[in-house]
Amino acid sequence: MKKWIVLAIVMLTLGAWFASASRNATPELSSSYIFDNPRPLAQFNLHDQYGNAFTNADLQGKWTLFFIGFTSCPDVCPTTLNKLTAAYPQLQAIDESIQVVFVSADPARDSQAKLLDYINFFNKDFKAVTADHSVLFPFSRDLGFSYAMVGDDDNYQVDHSASYVLVSPAGIKTAVFKTQIQPGEAPQIKNKDLIEDFKQIVSSSPS
């Protein structure tokens, strides 16, 4: 009788261990990778399209997908926003807390009113945030983004990263989605890869 009790305890322990290992196993990802040393974002204070403060507190309890750009961007930004709008319902089906945040690297031209009109054109559920460069640059660098102004007149362009960065509901920088190069196609992050990778990351994240 005692042998059966010991055996049952061993089996339960092994079952719990395998379940935990399965949850914490590194997922198979298509266009992203999980940071080896995930860490919380440094303290920041930006403002959104409604003029409200956007801080670390706004990350708590939500998966947040960041990308950087500017409203005058001729190609990458509108394409990205169209794609994310199309992917958004499926991302929400995986985890309804997901929020998409567009970070404007052009605070001089991207006023609150302009950010509001711009982001609402694509998806009213998305956020658009910015700040003075003294705040924006270290925040962007903390996320792993880069940007630079190109040109001297008022028609300057902004070179910027095309990746997405995923931050966990604990405010921890968790994963980056990189553009993939396919023969005959422009570098891009395909929605099917984004959705599948997000699913894998969420399911493997500690509860």
How would you portray this structure in words?
The protein is α+β, with helices and mostly antiparallel strands and 207 residues long. The chain has a single domain (29-204), classed as Glutaredoxin (3-Layer(aba) Sandwich). The protein is built from five helices and ten strands. The strands form two sheets. An eight-stranded mixed beta sheet has the order 1-10-9-4-5-6-2-3, sandwiched between helices. Helix 2 (76-94) links the parallel strand 4 and strand 5. Helix 2 (76-94) packs across helix 5 (191-204). It is globular.
Strands, helices and their partners?
Elements: H1 2-24, E1 32-40, E2 45-48, E3 53-55, E4 64-69, H2 76-94, E5 99-104, H3 112-122, E6 127-130, H4 133-143, E7 147-150, E8 157-160, E9 164-167, E10 172-177, H5 191-204
Parallel strand pairs: 4-5, 5-6
Antiparallel strand pairs: 1-10, 2-3, 2-6, 4-9, 7-8, 9-10
